[in-house]
Design a protein that fits this description.
Rossmann fold; 2 domains
Length: 278
């Protein structure tokens, strides 16, 4: 297992927004944490691996250091100047990048031993079709790692943060909050906590681009569990991560907020599954 280098993760995190290449390098070093997590979950990285939404391609390169062959797919060619370049620099030859839609995978049934969907699910246009395609291409003995976040939680909302921490998306609803942040980014960006180079709302406003909401699947935990079952997967492992504010509360309170249908989608910053075909 590759060593987790916090110094390199921090170094590349500081410049990850400079380019797709820099972000892919950051993903490459940060993915050592995911590999360690998979090891704790008892998930071997072996055989044929598919990253179902690889972005710039940093993670597939990291996985290729452990597996026989890794394919990274993305609907946009974000990897030709990032993942392909890094693979060449590191002399990694068992990784392939394919520009294709995750809802229509160009692979034969039951090909892959391991699938990964890391912070992708919330951006797919048809969650049922996406999961059905993942189910189609996974081997009967394969495993599927899926991570995402409920859209009502601060991390899952994928919205900027105000200097004064007001959860606008909970108060006025997501469509109105998205429009408000788009207006703030254009007219008063100083009220947003993130610097301009880390804030796509500000960058798009500065470049005269009308930003559109790419959070296409509004993840809710109870619905996600149902979607997983309906796609033909069973849950091997479920890990629910509370947001920092709740983790600082008494454990009993945190567990109640996590398990209550009224609050769980607000307080869960990340949900992770290891799935297997039923």
């Amino acid at each position: 297992m590759r060593e987790i280098r916090e110094d390199l993760i921090k170094e590349h995190a500081a410049r990850r927004f400079r380019s797709e290449y820099d972000y892919a390098l950051f993903e490459y070093y940060r993915s050592a944490k995911l590999i360690a997590l998979l090891d704790r979950f008892g998930v071997p990285i072996r055989g044929e691996v598919l990253d179902v939404g690889c972005g710039g391609g940093g993670m597939p390169i990291s996985l290729a250091e452990h597996a026989d062959h890794v394919i990274g797919i993305d609907p946009w060619d974000r990897f030709s100047m990032a993942g392909v370049r890094i693979a060449r620099e590191k002399s990694i030859h068992n990784v392939t990048f394919v520009q294709t839609d995750g809802m229509a995978l160009p692979f034969k049934p039951q090909r892959f031993d391991l699938l990964l969907s890391h912070s992708v699910f919330e951006h797919v246009a048809n969650a049922a079709r996406y999961l059905a395609e993942c189910r189609r291409v996974i081997r009967p003995t394969g495993l599927f790692y899926l991570s995402t976040a409920p859209y009502l939680s601060p991390p899952g909302a994928h919205l900027p943060h105000l200097l004064v921490p007001i959860p606008l998306h909970l108060i006025i609803g997501r469509p109105a909050a998205f429009a408000m942040f788009r207006w703030l980014a254009k007219h008063v960006p100083g009220v947003l906590r993130e610097p301009a180079h880390e804030n796509s709302f500000i960058k798009d406003a500065q470049n005269g681009i009308v930003k559109h909401d790419d959070l296409l699947e509004k993840v809710r935990l109870r619905r996600l569990r149902r979607q997983i079952h309906e796609a033909g997967f069973r849950v091997v492992h479920e890990h629910l991560t509370l947001i920092g504010t709740v983790r600082r509360m008494p454990p009993a309170v945190g567990r109640w907020l996590r398990d209550s249908p009224l609050t769980q989608d607000i307080v869960l910053g990340n949900v992770e599954y290891v799935l297997a075909p039923e």
